[in-house]
Design goal:
Order of helices and strands: EHEEHEHHHEHEHEEHEHEHEEHE
Radius of gyration: 20 Å
Strand order of the largest sheet: 6-13-11-9-7-8
Shape: elongated
Distance between the termini: 32 Å
Structural class: alpha/beta
CATH topology of the largest domain: Cytidine Deaminase, domain 2
CATH architecture of the largest domain: 3-Layer(aba) Sandwich
Number of helices: 11
Oligomer: single chain
Helix content: 25-40%
Low-confidence stretches: 204-209
CATH superfamily of the largest domain: LpxI C-terminal catalytic domain
Number of strands: 13
Mean pLDDT: 85
Length: 279
């Protein structure tokens, strides 16, 4: 049966807000994107949309209600704001005690609180993977390249690292080379972590005749996947190659992939593997 309920998309930066909107439209759903100024890309303007500033909480709620969106996807990157610099509208001021409470704790706590905020106001928060399941990584390789035996061992170590750190609300990714942990994702995100790895020249392609090391990306234990599912895209592949790593391993059915065909083509061109792994 075709889903006809209105879908709201609260859009930050990156490719995924548009990809989710495209999937919803193909399914015959009316969509309205509420795009955060300074974060969301102008490509969202191909769909019904409203630009808002951080702090315009009342306007977000009014826009979603006017568009009759009872389901909401929250997707895209957002720089964590300094609330002392945010100008709140009346709706923000009325909800200020609740909003201030959202910021208590780490990222997992923040995102869970955001979901509760919208659910308490009558919205059903859905994951991007529920609306656009084709964005999920499958099991097996993407592209022609395959991991070697050492890569497989490094992937296993990477799973153990992310699992061990999950309870501390630390990152979704790490880099392992020859069983050595080179980097763990922290607040800077995956891209900057890969940049740090590129500075470790003794591990990179410039010092070896072949690539070494694997980016491993998967959800932390208990991660709220409706608003914080790990993701990779073409930029990830470029940075992996620039860092001299041999490939990327992601958890199948638990990581989003932006522009899958382009990811495969880039991986083939740059000589790195991309692998979805069942855990």
């Amino acid at each position: 049966m075709i889903e006809t309920r209105g879908l709201g998309i609260l859009a930050g930066g990156g490719l995924f807000p548009v990809k989710v909107a495209e999937s919803a439209v193909r399914a015959g759903r009316p969509v309205h994107i509420v795009a955060i100024s300074g974060e969301a890309d102008a490509t969202i303007e191909a769909f019904p949309h409203t630009w808002i500033k951080l702090g315009e909480v009342g306007r977000i709620l009014k826009t979603l209600n006017k568009a009759e969106c009872r389901e909401l996807v929250i997707i895209g990157s957002v720089t964590r704001p300094d609330l002392s610099q945010v100008r709140f509208d009346l709706g923000g001021i009325l909800n200020l005690p609740t909003i201030l409470g959202l910021t208590i704790g780490g990222d997992d706590s923040l995102l869970s609180n955001v979901i509760r905020f919208f659910e308490a106001r009558g919205f059903e928060v859905r994951g991007a993977h529920e609306v656009a399941p084709e964005l999920l990584a499958g099991s097996g390789p993407i592209g022609r390249n395959r991991p070697g035996d050492q890569d497989i061992a490094d992937i296993a170590t990477g799973w153990d690292v992310v699992e061990a750190l999950g309870g501390l609300d630390v990152g979704q990714a790490c880099v392992v080379a020859r069983s050595h942990v080179l980097a763990i994702e922290a607040a800077e995100g995956t891209d900057r972590m890969l940049g740090r790895c590129g500075e470790l020249r003794q591990w990179g392609a410039k010092s070896f005749r072949r690539r070494r090391g694997v980016l491993v990306k998967c959800p932390k234990r208990g991660q709220e996947l409706r608003v914080d599912m790990p993701a990779i895209g073409p930029r990830t592949i470029e940075l992996v190659a620039a860092a001299g790593l041999s490939g990327v391993a992601v958890e199948a059915s638990a990581v989003l992939i932006a522009e899958r065909d382009r990811v495969a083509a880039l991986a083939d061109k740059l000589g790195v593997f991309v692998l979805g792994v069942e855990r």
